[in-house]
Structure to design on (152 residues):
């Protein structure tokens, strides 16, 4: 058995790994997904892959929920109150996450040692988004770089 303070063996001999409160590199915490909302327009510093992809996953879940409301509102053939409410929520949310989306993307570029201005690649049709996607998958620089300390 490995000696690790997070590794525990229960009475029945079953091993478990304590995840809550642990600080493993591979651990995911909801705070990391919501951090871009706290740093709403902060384009300085660095962001981990977990922060970026957690934020992206959170946005995906929110959009799926909003689209489910839209579909329920339009289920009767004629759009009703629920549909228009969902549409307003969609528009407000979509405009509300523009700045934090670009900010976390710029901080993610900083983590890989690149300038945040590479966010503008998103505006190149077709290929620009793919280039940015590849950069978002790259691991960050170990240790401090010109954009700040290592966020991990």
């Amino acid at each position: 058995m490995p000696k690790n303070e997070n590794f525990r063996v229960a009475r029945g001999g079953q091993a478990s790994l304590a995840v809550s409160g642990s600080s493993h590199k591979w651990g995911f915490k909801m705070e990391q997904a919501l951090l871009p909302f706290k740093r709403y327009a902060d384009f300085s510093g660095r962001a981990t892959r977990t922060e970026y992809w957690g934020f992206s996953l959170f946005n995906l879940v929110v959009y799926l929920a909003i689209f489910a409301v839209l579909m329920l509102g339009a289920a009767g053939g004629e759009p009703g109150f629920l549909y228009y409410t969902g549409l307003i929520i969609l528009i407000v949310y979509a405009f509300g996450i523009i700045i934090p989306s670009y900010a976390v993307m710029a901080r993610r570029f900083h983590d890989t040692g690149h300038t945040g201005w590479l966010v503008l690649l998103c505006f190149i049709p077709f290929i620009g988004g793919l280039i940015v996607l590849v950069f978002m998958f790259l691991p960050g620089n170990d240790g401090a770089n010109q954009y700040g300390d290592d966020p991990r």
